[in-house]
UniProtKB/TrEMBL annotation:
Residues 15-135 form the Activator of Hsp90 ATPase homologue 1/2-like C-terminal domain. It holds the Pfam family AHSA1. This is SRPBCC domain-containing protein. Belongs to the AHA1 family. Signal peptide: none annotated.
């Protein structure tokens, strides 16, 4: 059975080097990795290399729930592409490309079976939108 692949994207008004750094460095990830204002990422670890591991602890601000979003990198091409496999086996690919007025980020990920596709797309897009806002204002 093939998995549904969801596409999201954005354009960030910044340099490729800054976008890459803010997307991949744990000290920045904790500032933008949330889908809504009632969630946050109190901890992040990132060994950014092919075969490396990352884990981002995502938590409700009211303390009611938290989970680790984690995976293993299957491809890291600096300033170009990141691919990883999540703990549940789903695959994610992020491509960074230069445009005339910023950096385009195209992301695809395999949907999970619990939540509907539209909800997953909206949540992941909200996180990417937070990344854009954080990067453009810091």
């Amino acid at each position: 059975m093939s998995k549904t692949v969801i596409q999201i994207g954005t354009k960030v008004g910044s340099t490729l080097e800054k976008v890459w750094q803010y997307y991949t460095m744990a000290e920045h990830v904790v500032n933008w990795n949330h889908a809504s204002d009632d969630w946050y990422t109190p901890e992040a670890e990132n060994d950014l290399k092919t075969g490396g591991y990352f884990t981002y602890k995502m938590a409700a601000k009211d303390g009611s729930f938290n989970f680790n979003f984690a995976g293993i990198y299957t491809l890291v091409e600096p300033l170009k592409t990141i691919a990883y496999t999540l703990g549940d086996g789903r695959k994610v690919t992020i491509v960074f490309s230069e445009a005339e007025d910023g950096i385009v980020i195209d992301q695809s990920f395999e949907a999970e079976a619990v939540h509907d596709v539209e909800m997953q797309q909206q949540g992941w897009q909200a996180i990417l939108d937070n990344f854009k806002q954080y990067t453009e204002t810091h």
